[in-house]
Amino acid sequence: MRLARQPTRAVLGAQFLALGGALAAAVALAPTASWEPGLLAALAGCAVAGDLAASRTGAAKLKVSGSFLALVLAMVLLGGPPAAAIGTLCILVGWLRHREAPHYLRQNLVVYAWFPLAAGAPFHAAVAGGSISRSDPVFYVLVFATFILALALNFTLAAGYQSWLERSPLSAKARAALVPLLPSELFSALFVVLISFVYTKVGMAAIALLVVVLAGFQHLLHELLRSQEREGELRVRTHELEARTNQLASLQLGMISALLHTLDARDRMTARHSAAVARYAREIARAAGLSEPDQELVHTAGLLHDIGKFIFPDHILKADSPLQDDDWSIVRRHPYQGAKIVSQVEGYGPVAEIVVAHHERIDGTGYPRGLAGDRIPALSRILSIADVYDVMTARDSYRTPIGPTTAIEELRRVAGRQLDPEFVEVFVGLLQARDVRYRHGEDADFDAELQLERRVLAYAEG
After folding, report:
1. Rounded CA gap, 347 and 342, in Å?
2. pLDDT one-digit tens code per residue, 10-22
């Protein structure tokens, strides 16, 4: 067995040299960065809190911290130097609690000073060079790419030093610490993109809420990793894994719920409309004789079908006049964007397939893929009917509401062209059997329909 190395004078000199280089780079780039006090303070607070809650993975001996998410947000919203300043602050405050060896403190300062600068600089160079604004979709593609680059740099610098000390290959560290976290990190990258977008549209309130949720999510991920690494005591380990899985499911679904409620703050009908569509869709599926799993599936898809509206700017989301052609091109992307978000939750792939097709039409003129007839999933066809009916009859809709009787006539008029005629008649039968006032969607409650605790248990068992 090889003995672990001890830091040498050469290593000490390299660490100080690297810190000096980071300081020089930060000073040189500082004038090009944004130092907005409110955002800087909020992200610094989130980063420090995440770092104080950090722990180490058992086998790899690497620190896992929720501060990373706040640092990436600082890189893209403020710039490399402010992010490096926040990273340095995190390490210094964290050292007061963890009291790591001086050489680890120096190396952590190197890592958290350099990776924000190295990842933030190309991001802002690309944005400035391409004259890219925050309203451009490519901006958020760059945010995602910056997260991945920052993750790679952070891991390489931190794990590389640990591997050198332990005389172990870096690839072993990657297998033990990075690979198990990749799915969750990709999910986190998507949420960093969403947080950036929400901050641009809503401001500090939304970013504060979502960063706190994401920090908790990241914390539970590394707790799950620690549980997986524990050997022996099978009964205790199994119990812990079940608990962590439930917590992770709760956070994943809770974050999606938070996103929908944040969207509802911009468009007051979103949460209620989603609950009503979910309720109607389940009843249509039940009356059509579909299985209980299919009923649950279409209900879940109804709750999440409009989450892709996050991409809508306010002038579309709150439109009170006809949309232009460019606006419609954005509108037609929201089923795909919604499905993309939903598919990041493990086990929700079938839900995403329903969401992406809920604006397809029987005659093939729908979007985003122009599917026709039976090529449209049956549950998507059900969801379309529930969606159209609630939009027509709800008082908070973007159009003048009509009565249930008139809505039934309209459903039948577009049956066979826009909507599935068989499922339309199933729904009409439900409405008429209950004197057409059947469970009107205006009393629908999103949180009640969500039934988060039951969904978490189903997620964990499935």
Report:
1. 10
2. 888 888 998 999 9
